[in-house]
Amino acid sequence: MHQLFHLVFEVGAFALGYSYFQFLRLKDGDEITEAKRVWILVGAAAGALLGSRILGAMEQPEALAWNWSALWIALNNRTIVGGLLGGLIGVELTKRSVEVRTSSGDLFTYPLILGMMIGRLGCLLGGLEDNTFGIATSLPWGIDLGDGVSRHPTNLYEIAWLGVTWGALVFLESKVALVNGGRFKLFMISYLVFRLFAECIKPLPPLALGLSSIQWACILGLLYYFPAWSRPRSLVVGSTRMIGSDA
To answer: From residue 171, how far is each of 98, 163, 168 by CA, in Å?
Structure first.
C-alpha cells in the first residue's frame, strides 16, 4: 500500500508539473522554438533518469563494494539530487547539439518545485520502504513511520524549504529583474544547500570523508554554480552578466 501511495503521488507530480510548465510557457512565452524545446525536454528526462539512478545506487556503497551485481538492485534507488544534476547535464548536452545558446531553465523552475513538493508527500506516505526517512529525534514534531521510532520528518522539512524558496523567488522577482536563467540558478543553489545539510539527519552510510554520495553531489553542484552564489549581483539585469548557461 505504501508503494502504491508513492507511485500515485509520483505520477501526479509529473503530470501536474508538466501541465504547469505548459501553462507558464503559454502565459509568459518561450524564445526557444517548439521543436528545440521538445529536444531539451527529452535531454532533461534522459539525464534525470540516468542521474537519479546512478546517484541512488551510490547511496549503498557497502553493497557495491563487495558485489557489483548488487548494482542492479541498487539502481532501483532514485534521488532528486541525481535527477536534477543529471537533467542539467542532459539539457546542456542537448542544447549544444540543437544549437540553443540561451538559458532554458527558468520555465522549469516553478513546475519543478511543484512536482517535487507533491513527490515528497508520496515519499512521506511511502514510510520506511521509501528510504527517505530521518534519524531518531526527541523533538515534539518527530513522526513514527511504523517502526516505533520517532524520526525527523525530513520530507516535510523539504516541502517547507521548497515552499519558502518558491515564495522567496516570487518576491525577489517582484522587486528586481533577474537575468535569463537567474531564477533556475537561485533555485538550484537553494536546494543543493538544503540537501547538503539535510542529509546530516538521514541514516545514510558515508561515501568518503564522512559525507554521503548525495552530499558530495551537492558540493559538486554548488561548485558548478560558484559564479552565481559568489557574485549574486550578476543575476540582476543591469549588473555584470555571468558567462555560461544553467540548464
So the answer is: 34, 12, 5
Of 46, 138, 52, 154, nearest in space to 92 by CA: 46
Range 83-90 average pLDDT: 95
Q: Is the dihedral of CA 66, 68, 74, 79 positive or negative?
A: positive
Q: What does the alpha-carbon distance between residue 18 and residue 75 come to, in Å, rounded to a whole number? A: 25
Quote the mean pLDDT of the chain. Answer: 87
Tens of pLDDT, residue by residue over 192-230, are: 999 999 999 998 888 889 899 999 999 999 999 999 988
Of residues 6 and 167, the one with the higher pLDDT is 167
CB of 6 closer than 8 Å to CB of 120: no
- Domain boundaries of the chain, sorted by first residue: 2-235
C-alpha cell at 233: 549581483
Contact 77, 53 (CB under 8 A): yes
Grid coordinates belonging to 179: 537575468
**Short-list 49, 189, 20, CA closest to 117:** 20
pTM of the model: 0.89
Distance, in Å, from the CA atom of 29 to the CA atom of 16, rounded to the nearest integer, reads 19
Distance CA 210, CA 201 (A): 13
Q: Where do the H-state alpha helices sit in 60-140?
A: 61-66, 71-74, 80-98, 106-125
Mean pLDDT of 136-141: 94
Q: Which residues pair with 236 in a beta bridge?
A: 178
